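Order emerges. As here.
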Amino acid sequence: MYIKTLYQYYKDCGGQITTDSRNCPKGSLFIALKGENFDGNLYASKALENGAAFVIVDNPEVVIEGDDRYILVHDSLHALQQMANYHRQMLKTPIIAITGTNGKTTTKELIANVLLKKYKTHYTQGNLNNHIGVPLTILSMTASDEMAVIEMGANHPGEIKDLTRIVLPDYGLITNVGKAHLEGFGSLEGVIRTKSELYDYLKEKKNGTAFINFDDSILMKQAEGISHLITYGTSESTSVCGKIDDSSLTLSLEWYKPTLSNNIQRINTQLIGDYNLSNILAAITIGVFFKVPIEDIKEALEQYTPQNNRSQFKKTESNQLIIDAYNANPTSMLAALNNFCNLKAEHKMVILGDMRELGKDSLLEHQKIIDFLTKHKDIEKVLLVGDEFCKTNHPYTHFKDVNEVKNYLVSNPITDHTILIKGSNGIRLFTLVDSF
């Protein structure tokens, strides 16, 4: 079926698209996607009952003869992606694409907060950053959007390349590259190559522009050949230069434009971790580039509150918690631990959960975390959670799962501690918060 015909169905449905048959706004377009444990084709009729005006399916057996509400295509996912790309070409909205190993979602939120001070800005909700979430995000854009910030994730080579073909970004930003999803990428080199697919697209684009951390030698090398590089970092060779002013718990910084004199600005954020400096500088740099007033940039960044267990600080009656339990990989784990060790606190404790999707490198990378911990005696107590940490050679208290930790904490209550909680989302360490 021609893309123009599919796109017309999308327009006839007022741009309302759903992939959940249980949530079909009246007059919407339902797209039947398939996964390992589900087949949306089987729920097409239910989607129609629940309010969908049309359903896109790729299984002819579910089509009811004579019912023109069924739209049969070869591949429903491909149809979704084609419609998103076609819709993108209909829009003049400048798009900033963001990828990277760590900090994608936080950086995206910071940038969006800054741009919203001046522009009607469309941006990825939550972490809908994959081959389904990205096209859905594009299709929810309207002609009235003045800016867009699109997050792109990947766990296999070629995925960023495919997403850039859908998004057609005008600007790009890679937060960093590190050891994550090694099961899919194979190696750190595989991560670098895949994330750099965004740079490859910008190199081919006339006037392609990248916002880049000047302090990151890997990214600077990969970015060679892009028409315009807008830099940020701790060096005065950058467009925007910044340094940490005070990182005891929440992060404060000073920043300035080296080309101007007497323009030092101070920002007190609600973010935890020195490692967030580059993310904040990226948002400042983009704000400056798009002429957002300096006072609005400051207000946007100071008002931003971390969500979804990402770099969150919480003070309870008994303890201070640093909750960073949405995601974990060797790079982000060591960054969090380094930052935690540098904090000024009397009684420190860490609860660490397994780092998922590391493949053959899993034992080695988990052991490196243990080796780091054994060298830092200022951490008074360490609790480990998960099968991977269990395989390491360690002297710490270990638990199979988070429920065992909860039972332990009932019998061994913790008070007057500053506690770092860090692990992959699947370990569910965030459920421990109420135990303190």
